[in-house]
């Protein structure tokens, strides 16, 4: 365990479903991030939160909706996804923006 | 905009060999650079974080160097072992204080027994 916990580890959902990914850290970090990792592509930054406030939205489609209720928890709400959204979704946290990142183990998402 | 390139894309070596992985970045105004390891289907494990004021960092058999002026970093692995087989990722922040990490595509390392 790295200190960043992601659930579920695996998720299969239909294109009309609504689901949520959860990320939790108890490292006392103030910044949290969502990344997407598709096959044969570099990790893509999706969202950045610093002290619960969103500081970056990297042109992510609105079918992905993040939520950060406090500095320890981060959610990614999913609805009407496409098969090309199938990927490994990784959450990370850092003490501050720009400090060293700690990643979770990821959620493997398959959209059918 | 920050772009990170890693060479080679894949590397296969016999056990016991010393090896070097290369990373280059376009925006040298960085305050740190981080190396990660990723096993298949898993998350990322942080290996080394080099601050801009440092030239290198060491952890066990791993040594990472940073040359901001040339936009390069190297990860040196001494006496490689089959357990070192994984994908190694280099990441540099995207300018300013945003702290957003930009990743390379990684180097897939295979160490043969």
What does this protein look like?
- Chain A has 112 residues and is mostly beta strands.
- Chain A has no helices and eleven strands.
- In chain A, strand 7 and strand 8 (73-79) form a beta hairpin.
- Chain A is globular, with a radius of gyration of 13 Å.
- Chain B is built from no helices and eleven strands.
- Chain B has strands at residues 4-7, 10-14, 19-25, 32-38, 44-51, 56-59, 62-67, 72-77, 86-94, 100-103, 107-112.
- In chain B, the strands form two sheets. In chain B, strands 2, 4, 5, 9, 10 and 11 form a six-stranded mixed β-sheet that branches. Chain B has a five-stranded antiparallel β-sheet with strand order 1-3-8-7-6, with no helix packed on it.
- In chain B, a hairpin with a 4-residue loop joins strand 7 (62-67) and strand 8.
- The termini of chain B are far apart.
- Chains A and B meet through strand 9 and strand 10 of A and strand 4, strand 5, strand 9 and strand 10 of B.
Instruction: Please give the count of helices of chain A.
Output: 0
Give a quick account of the main beta sheet of chain B: strands, pairing sense, barrel closure. 6 strands, mixed
Radius of gyration of chain B: 14 Å
Task: Indicate the structural class of chain B.
Answer: mainly beta
Indicate the proportion of strand residues of chain A: over 45%
Mean pLDDT of chain B: 92
Write the layout of secondary structure elements.
The complex is a heterodimer of chains A (112) and B (113).
Chain A: E1 4-7, E2 10-13, E3 18-25, E4 31-37, E5 44-50, E6 53-57, E7 64-70, E8 73-79, E9 87-94, E10 101-103, E11 107-111
Parallel strand pairs in A: 2-11
Antiparallel strand pairs in A: 1-3, 3-8, 4-5, 4-9, 5-6, 7-8, 9-10, 9-11
Chain B: E1 4-7, E2 10-14, E3 19-25, E4 32-38, E5 44-51, E6 56-59, E7 62-67, E8 72-77, E9 86-94, E10 100-103, E11 107-112
Parallel strand pairs in B: 2-11
Antiparallel strand pairs in B: 1-3, 3-8, 4-5, 4-9, 6-7, 7-8, 9-10, 9-11
